[in-house]
Amino acid sequence: MHPHDQTIYALSSGRLPSAIAIVRLSGSRAGVALQSLAGKLPTPRLATRALLRDLTGDPIDDAIALWFPGPASATGEDVAELHVHGSRAVIATLFAVLSTHPDLRPAEPGEFTRRAFENGKIDLTEAEGLDDLIHADTDRQRRQALHQLKGLLGDRARNWRRQIIEASALIEAGIDFADEGDVPEELMGPAIDRIKLLLGEIETVLALQGRGERLRDGLTVVIAGPPNVGKSTLMNQLARREVAIVSPHAGTTRDVIEVQLDLDGYPVTVIDTAGIRDTDDPVEQEGVRRARARASDADLVLWLSEGGSSGADHRSDTPVWVVRNKIDLAGGDERRETANPVYRISAKQGDGIAELIDALVSFSRDFFGTDEAGLITRERQRKLLEEAAAALRSSIATVKLGEELAAEELRVAAFALGKLLGRVDVEDLLDVIFREFCIGK
Questions:
Q1: What DSSP state is assigned to residue 351?
Q2: Run of H or E residues at 379
Q3: What is the DSSP string of 68-121?
Q4: In angstroms, what CA-CA distances link 15 with 66, 83, 208?
């Protein structure tokens, strides 16, 4: 039997041991395996207590069994779920029994979701939304992923693709009826109007400048500056735990240290770097090189100093905030003119930290934008929408050169949206033409 036709099984819950573990099966033999384990098939979609037994009749566990006959299931196939006690011994025994059944095999990563996609239960954007939801670290990421999982982009893309196909059908009909006087003009006008309206909608989505992508990837903030100015202490203050070694000796931090923060629901990666200075130590030189590289790639640099630097040592176009540390010490916070925003703190005592965090939250809000329900969350989605928009613009520009050229550009746009959804079907256009215009005479 082909691997795609085999029944798969896997642990669908968290790491063992746990209070409860969920084992899921999907495929044509899921019911056979469930009946063998539980003695009978439970009532569909009704949680049923069952004593699971191995092939010799020995008990495995007292469990809850659920049965979802296809196609009314998550994957579109027959699906069984076993809610068992989450010990390693129970799962090992259960998997050993399942492995003895013919045409049953362990699932590969993402295979349940892929089968749901292949069976038309979800489109590709919804599958990506599910992946984002699983990996969401903050509440705003969770909400955005949930919007995608519910079809925020997929529904719009399906509607856009349907309109493109209908406009293309109008143009194709105009070509077929070219010998019937004013019929082509009556069809071409509405088609072009529909294309222009659709193009405006897609361009509006693209104009949001990837806010959804940024929210998915997160904001990167680098703490940079000379050695021994309190960068690691500030890192620990922002993280609210000891993540970096603090020492009075310069050059303690040699490598890049990262910590993931949740600032008012915004995902922020804060990076502590080696002190930037001239040195003969080859290890420290590498640390300085990495510090400069990470600062250049960051979305924001916090240039930490004791009052003597304005951030001029930072060599990139990345926004820089000057953070003057040790204001609690005499002589600290020497005031110098700088074009960059300035914040005054005591990383050791905590003075000014709350104000700095508030500023970071405000920066994050402006960076990510106020629209939490970003339609585009991945580069793949953006590129395909750009491809569709370019084809629509080309169809408008070439319609005067020939309806056939415009129709071809519309096919390119529909194909791009089909790739976005993972649904590329050449029969759609024919269906619309035959149904709407009765072309077959």
A1: B
A2: helix 379-398
A3: E-TTSSSSSS-EEEEEEEE-HHHHHHHHHHHHTSTTEEEPPTTHHHHHHHHTTS
A4: 21, 14, 39
Query: Amino acid identity, residue 382?
Result: R
The DSSP secondary-structure symbol of 359 reads: H
**pTM of the predicted structure, to 2 decimals:** 0.72
- Judged by DSSP in three states, 127 sits in helix
Of 176 and 402, the structure prediction assigns the larger pLDDT to 402
* Per-residue pLDDT tens digits for 203-232: 988 887 566 777 777 888 888 888 778 888
**Exposure letters 105-130 (e unless 16+ CB within 10 A, then b):** bebeeebbbbbbbebebbbbbbbbbb
CA distance 429 to 162: 9
Q: What is the pLDDT of residues 73-91, one digit of tens each?
A: 999 999 999 999 999 999 9
Long-range contacts of 432-440 (CB under 8 A, 24+ apart): 432/165, 432/166, 432/169, 433/169, 433/172, 433/173, 436/166, 436/169, 436/173, 437/169, 437/173, 437/176, 439/173, 439/176
